[in-house]
Amino acid sequence: MTELSRIRNFSIIAHIDHGKSTLADRFIQVCGGLTDREMAEQVLDSMDLERERGITIKAQSVTLNYKARDGIEYKLNFIDTPGHVDFSYEVSRSLFACEGALLVVDAGQGVEAQSVANCYTAIEQGLEVVPVLNKMDLPQAEPERVAQEIEDIIGIEASDAVRCSAKSGLGVEDVLEDLIRRIPPPQGEENAPLQALIIDSWFDNYLGVVSLVRVRQGVLRKGDKIQIKSTGKAWNADKVGIFSPKPTETGELGTGEVGFVVAGIKDIHGAPVGDTIVSNKHAAETAAVPGFKKVKPQVYAGLFPVSADDYDDFRDALEKLTLNDASLFYEPENSDALGFGFRCGFLGMLHMEIIQERLEREYDIDLITTAPTVIYEVVTRTGEVISVDNPSRLPDVGSIEEMREPIVEASILVPQEHLGNVIALCEEKRGVQSNMLFLANQVQLTYELPMAEVVLDFFDRIKSASRGFASLDYHFKRFQPANLVRLDVLINAERVDALALIVHRDQAHHKGRALIEKMKELIPRQMFDIAIQAAIGTHVVARVTVKALRKNVTAKCYGGDVSRKKKLLQKQKEGKKRMKQLGNVEVPQEAFLAVLKVDS
Ligand SMILES: Nc1nc2c(ncn2[C@@H]2O[C@H](COP(=O)(O)OP(=O)(O)OP(=O)(O)O)[C@@H](O)[C@H]2O)c(=O)[nH]1
């Protein structure tokens, strides 16, 4: 067991692309955790998809042995955190297991809103935040300006922040030295009964559920009878160890340490993130570690297999995905237009795209996704409050007393020269400004905005309005009464349930018109005219027609070249894969998501 004074538990707070993963890889290299050959690019981003998109999704940890300049060997537990705003709850749960955090800032860019929000969380949780200026090898690095910005915006001393380059390796050991000096060691009673916090749980095909834990007090040993506090179920700790970064069994985890435990649990709901593991013998007298907030999905959409034959495979795939992703929600949904599918809940649009891509790539299921929506609250005339995550399930207008939409508080950091554009965008999105602070070169804006306006494309819009310089962080604040209506889309006079949207009444006409114009571009011409209408109740607000066209793909083939003809027909068939037949009209997947393309 390692003496507490030689342990440091830390996270890295960084904005996307500021170099967190590169720096973590450098740490692993400096501490000799892997041979060069094993040091494949960016070891910590383990999922294929993460690697392709270059973003970190799942929290991971690594234990490193670092021989410091004072001659002492320290055990450094690094708990990785994702960078995207959709996954910010994972940051707060990783911070729970640490005494400190490195704030890595790109010295050529400066502080970004999300890092600010995460730093505040860290400081609130009593963590020591240690600033690091990265990318010092770049000619545009301006360490003095950025250090000043850290002091002004976050309010921590940064003039002496270590300057490094994760890419070249310059200053990386200085970062480790600074970390050891400034981040306090963990505290806790070695002889007390076991109390360990579950930071993360995931499903492994061979081992069952693996949980990443932080021991608060006592010792977790292989063979111990343990209990999961919230379920009251007892298990046997079959495997106990650390990630170095390869999983390595050590047989025990002492107070203050971070590592994994495998206890024969078959379902991640049996070892929920944020739960506490205690010794079975002392379960009654050991309290749970005060956990962190549970996350709820923010964005809902219907997912339907293109081919009804895929339904069972689709359900199995969702079941498997939730084994590793407790934040993914699903329940069966039946649409008149699209048949049997599932209503799924996601943390945000990125999460939705990732799940959709995994379903298609890893499980080979072609899907139609309906327009994403947030959750609305509806108060009925009888005084009942119901949550609506599906526009087509909105109760009859006559029975609605009030509708409420979710409001977020958004914090935006933007350089002064782009302030006007960003404010204009917030106004367009029905935002209400609650604060504006001029800090160093940046302005910190606080807005209350309807969540529906924020989750879809706000992030991309704000980036383009500021030439990539503005950054955004937001969280749910409350539900607020709003004048909302359901906008229906009719194709050849048939209402298509899967295309319904909930929109603000003031925007209904404009949105309806823009939406069907977009759909007109996306629905290919067919052998007959197709009328597309947008309607509120029985009132049609806009109408377009997709003109008939006889599309004969083989017309171009002269002579009797059969193989060429076959090839063309095959090509056309593949092109059809993601089409859905609505009545006699073929509608492509893109048309169901047309609303996402309306604003841009
Ligand atoms: N020039 C230079 N480039 C760097 C440095 N550190 C990282 N980069 C580059 O910056 C890009 C982003 O680095 P990552 O380490 O993937 O960033 P990240 O913060 O982990 O991003 P997420 O995983 O998405 O949170 C990569 O192309 C790196 O090669 C540095 O010190 N200098």
Automatic annotation (TrEMBL):
One Pfam family cited in the UniProt record for this chain: LepA_C
Membrane topology: Peripheral membrane protein
Keyword Membrane in record: yes
EC class: hydrolase
Catalytic activity: GTP + H2O = GDP + phosphate + H(+)
UniProt domain Tr-type G: residue ranges: 5-187
Protein family: Belongs to the TRAFAC class translation factor GTPase superfamily. Classic translation factor GTPase family. LepA subfamily. Belongs to the GTP-binding elongation factor family. LepA subfamily.
Places the protein is found: Cell membrane
SMART domains: EFG_C
GO molecular function annotation: GTP binding; GTPase activity; guanosine tetraphosphate binding; ribosome binding; translation elongation factor activity
CC per GO annotation: plasma membrane
Name of protein: Elongation factor 4
Cross-referenced InterPro entries: EF-4, EFG_III/V, EFG_V-like, G_TR_CS, LepA_C_sf, LepA_CTD, LepA_IV, P-loop_NTPase
Sorted UniProt keywords: Cell membrane, GTP-binding, Hydrolase, Membrane, Nucleotide-binding, Protein biosynthesis
E.C. numbers: 3.6.5.n1
Underlying gene: lepA
CDD domains, A to Z: EF4_II, EF4_III, LepA, lepA_C
